[in-house]
Each structure stands twice: as structure tokens, then as C-alpha cells.
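queue> pop job 88
queue> type: inverse folding (structure -> sequence)
queue> payload:
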């Protein structure tokens, strides 16, 4: 059986950090003057505010949800603010749904929220201008906390803490809670632990010493029985249907595996299947796409030796959609809506050709994975 702890994460927003080896900050990061963040000053600026709305990237993953939960706890323990978590898209993956249910994460669909009720707006695990969140376009942001490379728009937020050298946004938020000596309740500790675990594949993927330190701090506080229930959720029939389709449709072009899943029951399924196919012994690159409603979602995975998934995804998608990712994981969404599987197949073939071209694999022999 595949290791079901593997998670898509931080899709769209690019990030980079080495295996336990923090990389130097990017030029863009230091040029923007981001990184000298003071938590005490950040919290002081929030005095007198009443209602905080916290956004994550759409179809949030455990890192986004853990960071949002942690930020809510932080501000509610240190300021007068009450925080609300805004859900853009859906929580689809079974582990992520189990996390929401078992840890009682209070998500409110973004479309039912009246943003005028909130005097303070935050986003975690994403940034303004990435095209992967449901942020209101007409509001200035107060708080941006992320571990993807800094974007210019983010610097406008008074509380802008972006650390691309870290493996997870939840690591940053846990550091805040520790800096202010705020006790963690079991559900929050479990959420942060699961967030970091799934984001880094148990510290094996793009984790740093900060994530290891977070693990050691959290382990005594985590409910490991709950953790097991989240990590090993019961799976719906549609998961096995999608798996069956994925295995039958997957094609091998040398060390590149590609699959079009057709209509999918939830957007992050493309990332889940891409993770699964990367386990294939010949795989160095996996491209997976599918259609959720009228939108095409794309996921790319690479082996750690090919750490340029985010860059490849941005080249693949170009101006046709929103794209980004980490060194070995990336995601994207095409802007043009499709109404038929034929349109999806055309878009997919275009992406496959571009990937083969970008990786110098044009002309590689093509075989079905099975049969
Ligand atoms: Mn993340």
C-alpha cells in the first residue's frame, strides 16, 4: 500500500529549502526587506482591533490549516481579537477531512462571509497575488505569514513574515506561540504536528532543523491516537475509483509519468495521485491533471534529485493559469474553463508535450504503466 501520509502541500506558492540544510534567502526576499519581523510589535499593532479573518490557500492542506489554527490561538490569547478561519475551495482529501473533523477546526466557507464585518485580514501559507486564494480583491492585508518566496504585494502588510528557508508555515506559527509562552491545547498541538509531518513527509522532504525542533517540542503534547485516526482515515469508494482510473491511464515516457484523471471528486486528488505514482521505480517526474467542475487542476512531482518542480510548473502553465510550488512539489490551475473531457484531454496533451520539451524528454519511448 502507498504511504498515505504523503500530502500535497503549499501548492502554487513556490518554496525552497534543503534537506535539513537551510538555503540562503533569495534575492527577492532580501530586496523586499522582509524578514526582520518582530512578533511583539506585530501584536502591539493589533491592539484595539476586534475581528480577524484568516485566509489560507484554497483547498487548504494540513500546513495551511495548522498555521491558521495556531494564529487564531495566538491572537485570541494575546489580544482582544476574535478570529475566524475562511475556507476557500473544499477540503477534499480524506486525511484532511479527518483532520478538520477530529480536531474540530472551525472553517467557514469564504463565500458566506461578509468581509466588512472584519477589521483585520490575514493570510497564511500563501500570499496575495498568487491566484490560489479567495482573498477579497479590494482589501489591504494586515498579516501575511508564509514559507514560499516573497512576493512584492506581501510587503504592504504591516505583519509580513515570510521565511522561504523553512519547511512549513506551521513551524513559523509554532515559533510565535513558543516565543509568547502560550500553552497549546491537545488539538492544536496535534494539528501543528500533523501539519509539519505531512508537509515534510515526516521530515524527509524539504525540512530544516526548525522542523526537527518543532517535532521534539510537540511530541509530548500530541494525541497520537487522534493522529492515527487522521493519518489512516477510512476512504470513500470514489478514492478507489480514481486510483483504478489513474493506474489504467498512466503513461510512462522514460522517467516521466503522466496521467489525466478526467473528472475528479475534489481538486487535491491530482496531487494525491502524483505522489503515489512518484513511488514507481522509474519515475523522476510525475504530471497529473484532472477536471473539478470546469476547472483544470495540475500537479507535478519530482524526485529530490530534480528539485525544480515549482519552476517547471510556472513554465508549463505560463500565463494560462496560476502556478507555483516547492522544489519537489508543484501545483497549478488553468484559467480557461473546460466543459468536456475532450477539452481536458487537449489541454493535458499540451502540458505533457511542454513537460517533455522542458525536461529534454521529447522522443522518449511511450508505454502504458500497466498492460
Ligand atoms: Mn506550506
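queue> result:
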Amino acid at each position: 500500500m502507498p504511504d498515505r501520509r504523503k500530502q500535497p502541500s503549499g501548492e502554487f506558492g513556490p518554496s525552497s529549502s534543503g534537506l535539513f540544510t537551510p538555503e540562503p534567502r533569495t534575492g527577492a526576499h532580501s530586496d523586499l526587506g522582509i524578514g526582520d519581523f518582530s512578533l511583539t510589535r506585530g501584536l502591539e499593532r493589533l491592539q484595539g482591533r476586534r475581528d480577524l479573518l484568516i485566509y489560507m490557500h484554497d483547498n487548504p492542506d494540513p500546513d495551511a490549516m495548522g498555521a491558521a489554527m495556531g494564529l487564531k490561538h495566538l491572537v485570541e490569547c494575546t489580544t482582544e481579537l476574535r478570529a475566524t478561519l475562511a475556507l476557500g475551495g473544499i477540503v477534499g482529501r480524506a486525511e484532511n477531512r479527518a483532520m478538520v473533523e477530529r480536531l474540530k477546526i472551525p472553517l467557514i466557507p469564504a463565500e458566506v462571509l461578509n468581509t466588512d464585518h472584519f477589521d483585520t485580514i490575514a493570510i497564511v501559507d500563501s500570499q496575495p497575488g498568487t491566484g490560489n486564494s479567495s482573498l477579497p480583491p479590494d482589501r489591504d492585508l494586515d498579516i501575511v505569514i508564509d514559507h514560499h518566496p516573497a512576493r512584492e504585494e506581501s510587503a504592504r502588510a504591516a505583519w509580513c513574515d515570510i521565511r522561504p528557508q523553512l519547511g512549513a508555515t506551521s513551524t513559523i506559527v509554532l515559533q510565535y506561540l513558543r516565543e509568547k509562552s502560550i500553552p497549546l491545547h491537545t488539538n492544536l498541538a496535534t494539528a501543528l504536528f500533523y501539519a509539519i509531518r505531512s508537509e515534510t513527509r515526516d521530515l524527509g522532504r524539504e525540512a530544516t532543523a526548525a522542523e526537527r525542533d518543532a517535532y521534539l517540542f510537540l511530541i509530548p503534547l500530541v494525541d497520537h491516537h487522534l493522529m492515527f485516526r487522521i493519518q489512516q482515515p477510512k476512504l470513500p469508494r470514489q478514492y478507489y475509483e480514481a486510483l483504478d482510473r489513474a493506474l489504467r491511464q498512466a503513461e510512462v515516457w522514460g522517467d516521466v509519468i503522466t496521467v489525466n484523471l478526467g473528472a475528479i471528486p475534489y481538486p487535491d486528488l491530482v496531487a494525491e495521485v502524483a505522489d503515489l505514482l512518484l513511488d514507481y521505480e522509474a519515475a523522476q517526474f510525475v504530471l497529473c491533471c484532472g477536471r473539478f467542475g470546469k476547472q483544470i487542476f495540475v500537479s507535478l512531482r519530482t524526485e529530490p534529485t530534480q528539485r525544480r518542480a515549482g519552476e517547471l510548473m510556472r513554465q508549463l502553465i505560463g500565463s494560462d493559469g496560476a502556478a507555483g510550488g516547492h522544489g519537489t512539489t508543484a501545483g497549478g490551475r488553468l484559467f480557461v474553463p473546460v466543459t468536456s473531457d475532450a477539452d481536458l484531454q487537449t489541454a493535458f496533451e499540451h502540458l505533457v508535450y511542454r513537460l517533455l520539451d522542458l525536461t529534454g524528454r521529447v522522443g522518449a519511448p511511450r508505454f502504458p504503466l500497466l498492460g
